[in-house]
From TrEMBL:
Gene from which this protein is expressed: Lmf2
Superkingdom classification of source: Eukaryota
Subcellular localization: Endoplasmic reticulum membrane
Protein name: Lipase maturation factor
Main location: endoplasmic reticulum
Coiled coil feature spans: none
Example of a GO biological process term: protein maturation
InterPro entries: LMF, LMF1/2_C, LMF1/2_N
Keywords: Endoplasmic reticulum, Glycoprotein, Membrane, Transmembrane, Transmembrane helix
The keyword DNA damage belongs to this UniProt entry's keyword annotation: no
Domain Lipase maturation factor 1/2 N-terminal: 1-34
Length: 351
């Protein structure tokens, strides 16, 4: 999980989300892993030589697993090294149907493997309770085991619901009682699926809202934000773990009509008014804000789709980071007191 989060940090920009996930992952370590940092010697079985058959088989199984994962990754993601261009090329070498069928094949068996693993741990813990000396301490250990085992089984059961969200047929095959248990505790967010953008948007182009201002209603100037894509020649900003809230929300706004984002009308109003606090959310360096001397008379917004350019798209001059295509008007041209703007502000209670 930590490796996955590090890879996401290196290839994406999800603010502090990945850092929080890494912290949660490290919270699972116990004194067997971090005891030496706390000055406690780690309890290890005696290292005899030659190693036992179980140790050898365990090591071989682990190495085989990593080898298979590597081979499958190379095969199913078409990894190839282009030595001439010094690039690692990749492509998805399986279809959506094949992926769906694979999920359908492995989801329920994985639930079975997890159930067997949990059962083994519970039985091993029960055996350790039976080995405790003294009747009182045996009863005390058994009571602790019963409480922890019940809580663990309950937590495991409700976690099967979000775990199987990725494959709806498997989710429907779960015992109805598990769904009822999950419904009873869902509001407490006890268990969750890995849910932040697990279904990625922007596969057919990243939607972006581009604000434009004008003094005469004919000549329009784009307003660049500090972090979001705009100027196709500007490199993406790496700002994690900082979260630029306005730029982040503008991306969500681009996923639907502006009526779904009432705050956008308020943003347009404040920029038309030239409110300094709002302008600083757009550009901290006021010289980079095209209307820093006086506010624009008109504002409008256009919806574009953005794609990264590839190294093969060689052009004279500085290479652009993005290519974009105009989709439609996102927000009509308005000015202070414009009926459309006034109606939207009144409708959303922002007057």
């Amino acid at each position: 999980q930590v490796l996955l989060q590090v890879l996401i940090i290196l290839t994406g920009n999800y603010n502090f989300f990945n850092v929080l996930t890494i912290v949660l992952a490290f919270s699972l370590l116990d004194e067997e892993h971090v005891g030496h940092w706390l000055g406690r010697p780690r309890r290890r079985p005696s290292n005899g030589w030659p190693p036992s058959l179980g140790s050898v088989l365990g090591t071989l199984l682990e190495l085989s697993t990593y080898g298979l994962l590597l081979c499958w990754t190379v095969h199913y993601f078409g990894l190839e090294i282009d030595w001439d261009r010094k690039l690692l090329d990749s492509k998805v070498a399986f279809t959506y149907h094949e992926f769906t069928m694979w999920l359908r094949t492995v989801t329920l068996p994985l639930v079975g493997v997890a159930s067997l693993s949990l059962s083994w741990e519970i039985l091993a813990a029960m055996y350790r309770c039976a080995c405790v000396r003294g009747c009182f301490w045996k009863l005390w250990a058994t009571l602790q085991w019963a409480i922890m085992a019940t809580a663990t089984v309950g937590l495991f059961a409700v976690s099967l619901v979000p775990f199987t969200y990725i494959e709806h047929e498997s989710n429907g095959k779960l015992w109805p009682g598990i769904h009822q248990m999950f419904g009873a505790v869902e509001r407490f967010q006890v268990v969750n699926s890995y849910g932040l953008f697990r279904r990625m948007t922007g596969v057919g182009g990243r939607p972006e809202v581009i604000l434009e201002g004008s003094y005469d209603g004919h000549s329009w100037t784009e307003i660049e934000f500090m972090y979001k894509p705009g100027n196709v020649s500007a490199a993406p900003a790496v700002v994690a773990p900082h979260q630029p809230r306005l730029d982040w929300q503008l991306w969500f706004a681009a996923l639907g009509p502006h009526q779904n984002s009432p705050w956008f009308s308020a943003l347009v109003l404040r920029l038309l008014q030239g409110q300094p606090d709002v302008i600083r959310l757009v550009q901290m360096d006021e010289s980079r804000y095209p209307f820093h001397t006086r506010p624009p008379t008109f504002l409008r917004a256009q919806l574009y789709k953005y794609w990264f350019t590839s190294p093969s798209e060689g052009r004279p001059g500085p290479a652009p980071w993005w290519r974009r295509q105009h989709v439609q008007e996102f927000f009509p041209a308005v000015s202070l007191g414009h009926p459309t703007l006034e109606s939207l502000l009144s409708q959303h209670g922002l007057k």
